[in-house]
From TrEMBL:
<dbReference type="InterPro" id="IPR036390">
    <property type="entry name" value="WH_DNA-bd_sf"/>
</dbReference>
<keyword id="KW-0804">Transcription</keyword>
<protein>
    <submittedName>
        <fullName>Helix-turn-helix transcriptional regulator</fullName>
    </submittedName>
</protein>
<keyword id="KW-0238">DNA-binding</keyword>
<keyword id="KW-0805">Transcription regulation</keyword>
<dbReference type="InterPro" id="IPR002577">
    <property type="entry name" value="HTH_HxlR"/>
</dbReference>
<dbReference type="InterPro" id="IPR036388">
    <property type="entry name" value="WH-like_DNA-bd_sf"/>
</dbReference>
<dbReference type="GO" id="GO:0003677">
    <property type="term" value="F:DNA binding"/>
</dbReference>
<dbReference type="Pfam" id="PF01638">
    <property type="entry name" value="HxlR"/>
</dbReference>
<feature type="domain" description="HTH hxlR-type">
    <location>
        <begin position="13"/>
        <end position="114"/>
    </location>
</feature>
């Protein structure tokens, strides 16, 4: 545990570096949507429809980041019009059980957290 705490305060902390990317506002939703969509890989617009409040620019940026880190596979087909599909890598699949626990915790605690926020806001 001591080693972990020391690594967390280091400038190039691997823990903060990885969690900052995976746990940002949109990455979790994109990963989860790709995992639980029933029809296999998703095209960009289909993915955007599943997450309606994400902008086109933010979805593009999020997908590029997730692809660069090895969580998402981008498969482009040589067709007219062009077709691109997104799916999860095995690395991303290993995140799903962890995400399930985090989401369950958030759902279990959301009401009391919102109450605490309201109380703190005055």
């Amino acid at each position: 545990m001591g080693r972990m705490i020391k690594e967390m305060v280091v400038q190039d902390c691997p823990i903060r570096n990885v969690l900052a990317r995976v746990c940002d506002k949109w990455s979790l939703l994109v990963i989860y949507t790709l995992k639980y969509h029933q029809d296999g890989p998703l095209r960009f617009n289909a993915l955007r429809k599943q997450i309606p409040d994400i902008s086109q620019k933010m979805l593009t940026s999020t997908l590029k980041s997730l692809e660069a880190d090895g969580y998402v596979i981008r498969k482009a087909y040589a067709e007219v019009p062009p077709r691109v599909e997104y799916s999860l890598t095995p690395r991303a699949e290993t995140l799903i059980p962890i995400m399930d626990h985090l989401i369950e915790w958030a759902l279990d605690n959301m009401a009391v957290i919102l109450k605490d926020r309201d109380k703190a806001a005055g």
